[in-house]
Amino acid sequence: MDILLLVGGLLLILLGANGLTDGAASVAKRFRIPSIVIGLTIVAFGTSAPELTVSISSALKGSADIAIGNVVGSNIFNTLMIVGCTALFAPIVITRNTLKREIPLCILSSVALLICANDVFLDGSEENMLGIADGLLLLCFFAIFLSYTFAIAKKDGDTTNPEKEPLQEEDEIRLLPVWKSALYILGGLAGLIIGGNFFVDGAGGIARGLGVSESVIGLTLVAGGTSLPELATSIVAALKKNPEIAIGNAIGSNLFNIFFVLGCSASITPMRLTGITNLDLWVLVGAGILLWLFGLFFGKRTITRIEGSILMLCYAAYMAVLICNL
């Protein structure tokens, strides 16, 4: 039953995210909102909606380890597995601006989470917690990130934006009737909410049935499930000879997850970190640094197939450590 809840919840989340994105994009196009705004907000939200739904549902139900593990695990999965897997299909060229701006910003977001989640070490507190103040701080970072992204996109005309491919899909946005757009939006929201509840209940039940912590389930099963949209997008992009989308996809999703998803979740209710350790957070920071080093020093700003294999092996090693620590 728990597996059915998990799978059914994930399907509802994916369908809900797709419906909400299509409906919102159609409304935005009807009101002549620029395609760049649609891409940087609605498309970005659509691919990260599963993480947002699961994390907020988990936080409200008191399953903070699933909420935080979902984000940390998803970001590690994005950086190591999605980029690595995409590089196996086709080498990924990294632009100079991505190497100088976006990847360091992604590393900074991971470091910010590491600092916010170390109350015991830094403040001598009794437990590590992401409180309301931490959530509001992360949301402030998200606002700065959005302002920066819009400024860069406006200045460069999308020519150097790592997420330029999704922004060029204006012609693919369907202009739906108003009633159908509203139906898609409402139906998508309902799918996200109901699916999120099912998914969290199923994941929690599986964790209890297997005798493992919710943090491990969040870092592995939940993280992999909610990262399916990013994985599918990156692989399809590689098959269409646009593997560079994987970098923008991973970086954009990682920033959105930490600054917005965790920011919203922690702002709604404080979240205690009981199963998420510094090992997980340092792996998150290290994954971003490794990606940056590969782009900076090897292969002339290109993630080669060998480097992609190394990234995937690093993820496999991390999974092995989690399993051994059960």
SSE topology:
Elements lengths: L1 H29 L4 H26 L3 H26 L2 E2 L2 H21 L2 H5 L5 E2 L1 H25 L7 H4 L10 H33 L3 H13 L1 H12 L5 H24 L2 E2 L5 H20 L4 E2 L1 H20 L2
Antiparallel strand pairs: 1-4, 2-3
Helix pairs in contact: 1-2, 1-8, 2-3, 2-8, 2-11, 3-9, 3-10, 3-11, 3-12, 3-13, 4-11, 4-12, 6-11, 8-9, 10-11
Detailed description of the structure:
The chain has helices at 2-30, 35-60, 64-89, 96-116, 119-123, 132-156, 164-167, 178-210, 214-226, 228-239, 245-268, 278-297, 305-324; strands at residues 92-93, 129-130, 271-272, 302-303. By secondary structure, it is mainly alpha-helical. The protein has one domain: NCX, central ion-binding region (A middle domain of Talin 1, Up-down Bundle), CATH 1.20.1420.30. It has a two-stranded antiparallel sheet with strand order 1-4. The chain crosses the membrane at residues 76-94, 103-122, 128-151, 182-200, 216-239, 251-269, 281-299, 306-323.
Name some characteristics of this structure.
326 residues, two-stranded antiparallel ribbon, two-stranded antiparallel sheet, 4 strands
Quick summary of this structure?
The chain is mainly α and 326 residues long. Helices cover 79% and strands 2% of the residues.
